[in-house]
Amino acid sequence: MGEGATTAALIGRDAELAELLADFEAAGSGRMAAVILGGDAGVGKTRLVTEFAGAAAAAGAVVLTGRGIDIEDAPPFWPVISALRHGVRTATGRGADGREVADLLGPRLTRLDELSAETGPRVQILEALYRTIVELAHRRVVVLVVEDLQWVDRSTRDFLVYLVASLTSERVLVVGTYRTAGDAPGIAGMLVELRRHRQVSWRAVAPLRRDGLASLVEQWAPDRPGLEPLVWQRSAGNAFIAEETVRAVLAGDALGLPATLRELVLNRVSSLPATAQLVARAVAVSSGPLPHPLLAEVLELPGAALLDAVRAAAGAGVVVVDEQFEGYRLRHGLMTEVVVADLLPGERIELHRRYATALSKVADAERAPAPPPGQTPGQTPGQSQSQNQGADRDSAVAALASSARLAHHWQHAGAPERALTAIVAAAQAAERIRGYAEAHRHWLRAAELTAAVPVAARVLPHPECLERAAEAAHLAGEHNDAVDLLEQRLAEPAAAGDVASALLTARLGRYLHAAGHSGRAARAYRTATSLLPEHGMAAERAEVLAGHAAVLLQGGEFAAAGSVARRALQLSRAAALPSVQARVLAILGFSRAYLADTEKGSSALVEALAVAERTGAPTAIGEAYLRRAELLSGPLNQLVDGVACAREGAARVAGLGLSRTAGVALLALAANGLFRLGRWDEAERAVAQAWQLEPTGGEALEVRLARCRLDVGRGRFDSAEHDLAAVELLTASSVGPRHRLPLLILRAGLEMWRARPDLAVGHVEEGLGLVELETVDIWLVAPLLWHGTRAWAEINRLGLPPLSAEQTRRLRGHCAELVRRSAGTVPAVRDVITTYAAMCTAETARAEGRSDPAIWAQVRQLLDQRDQPYPAAYARLRRAEALFAERARSSAATEELVLAERTARALGAAPFLAEITDLARRARVQLDPPDSADEDIPSPRRGTESALDALTARELEVLTELSSGLTNRQIAGRLFISEKTVGVHVSRIFAKIGVHSRVQASALLHRARPSGGESGAG
What we know:
By secondary structure, the protein is mainly alpha-helical. It folds into nine domains: 2-206, P-loop containing nucleotide triphosphate hydrolases (Rossmann fold, 3-Layer(aba) Sandwich), CATH 3.40.50.300; 211-257; 270-275 and 282-343, Arc Repressor Mutant, subunit A (Orthogonal Bundle), CATH 1.10.10; 346-368 and 390-477; 479-532; 536-584 and 591-601; 617-732, Alpha Horseshoe (Serine Threonine Protein Phosphatase 5, Tetratricopeptide repeat); 751-923, Serine Threonine Protein Phosphatase 5, Tetratricopeptide repeat; and more. Strand 3 (142-147), helix 7 (154-166) and strand 4 form a beta-alpha-beta unit.
């Protein structure tokens, strides 16, 4: 039954296979998709995706297949990395046809190896893997299959979510399978994240129908026509159980056929020769890929006897060769679970002990001697470091897998001391390949085991395990976990009242800062400073104060940041620390320019750059440029100078090897400045230049946000949504305002242009909640408040359920606070905030139904003075709207509307242009004829609709507004006519189209225009 059963198992899955092939065709047309297949164990998920993968490969796709392994401490990104490496091996063996794939994947895997050799957040690995898939999709359709999602490691789960969130129109199809039953910690969070994305399809692989099962049984046992009822009764359509039942019958167990799956499997195993039974039990306990030499070491059978035993187990369909992992496994996870559960405690312990002993011998044999002087570990003489990085990473991955398995087996063998040694080795190996999520988990296990073994047997002290677990969590992006662990460490007596405690507390401040908790971070740094001795240790104190000043600056406490930076500057000069000196000079300059003296602050920033240049330290030079460009193009609104500084800095740091970090950040700053200047095409080129540098980490997030601003402005909403989802995923553990507010502001803006102001208010209120928890830079608060008041006005204009009294009180209170706080800043900053305050005042008046043309004229003038054509054109639109409300025929309003339209068209601001066109339609203003490229801009009428042909253009407009549920007064306000005139139009409409109610009139319009008419709400 062996091979034939496997081939026949696809019977009854025609519909499921057709759906996957349709998804594949869609992906080939540039519509990225992801399919998650869930189902019971044994239902046939693997067979389905195997058949599909074969068909996709035959159609020319690059198929990458990986599988989660049922071991708690699997290496990070294991299914994806192993799928890529297997892809290289497979492509290499296909001659010229596969050479382009191998040529692409080879360097990409080398890049992954390089990243693994560096230090930094694992987001860089996520980005690198993502870019590998995208680059491959430029050549061919890519199908990434990951089976057994319930067992994949944390890093792989994060990557799949990140990949789905980041892809848009790439030719990629992601297929995942998972068991719907059973305990799988961690998968629930991944499934929740994936459910948020529209391109993800969820499908259940149900048991086979009876006719499909009958066809299978007929192929498996053509000479047993009466067998189908028994198989159906036992399996209920589960393919694995059905096959086991048929095997049992064909093996002669027709009369005493077991009633349960457990009995079916155990009877099969017990029917094997004694040595083959040993093989089956050993393979079941192996916890991961099992190479033949390791199996031989565990069982200690003669070579020929072992081969015979393995062949007998394989011939009976119990053991299979796993080509992906180059080892043995039992045929199905269900079979593994049954065999393991049937072992006696003594048998289980003995097998784990044998595995641990065998793995220890292998590790001892493979342990490399210390390298000669001048040669790095793992480097082969005559080869460069870059040539050896792939080998280094492979070595580290192998060490991690071996150490993790060793710890697993020693722990289950009842030897916690040896398990501790192995888990520490696994944690260190995970750190070497930047598997920080896994290192975090290993260090936590090490801390637990340390507490369970005698002091003499401890490899590392318990406090050190906690510290290293905290650092790994921080590098994995789990900043709040890092905070919790370090606070636990500081609570231990050994950490109290000494210099070490001060430095640990400063590290806590760093973790809190990364998590976005600026207030708590500042308090931690203050505590750290107080713990340091007042005399001596100038270098340590300077470092701590520099970190403190940076936190205060990021939190918007500019005066305090300047004060702390001045103290740090004195100490850094006394301790001869020019790199720290450059850093605090930049902070001091930023603070001084923001609060007191723009010229002196700018001079300090110039000095910071000069000091940094003298040090020759690339990171110091990059930070100095970043501070200066951020100040100029941000709060000081010196946009032209800021863009020039950013571009100069990007060119400078590129020569220092920092193009992918500081260079990208500077290009993102330049793009944002160009966006505000209305030079959107240049901004898009800056974003494209930055993205081509393949940024990772925080720099990649900044580029995504800059791109999102452009995409929202130009109406590419799906692309903007993808970037926001990716940024949100990567900042999920950073809950402070510094990281969250830009996201929430962009989300609010996106919903406003989607004509969903009620959703925009939700994002604004979440942002205000963060503002109320901590001191936040008013530069961040101001645009949030403008979005809030604008959404309030739009809700009232569209007739949506109004805001509550508490919501409006909250918005008013924050607007007043904005004005109060701006009084304490330098004139340049105060002028920018005053502009935002005027915009909020104008929107508030609009929300209250008294939009004031004079206020909007003031706002437009302020924005023109600050060289910001986009919001200035918006102010023109609102002034025109207010003027039309006062007088239906207004030349001043028409002029404002025409000028706004020209700006929107020049920028390519499609959503804004649609709103201008809508107002022009309602006010009956003739704008310039649109270009052919502007087909998406709504027009007053599209074709003729028989029953509506009798209506005039104005009557049709009234009917369109009426069908949206507006009252006569609201229609009058939108069309700039009197309420009485609306009533006359409604009466005439009813008479002409032969209806007697608003409902009938609306129904007739919707029948004539199935798309819902042209409400013009957007």
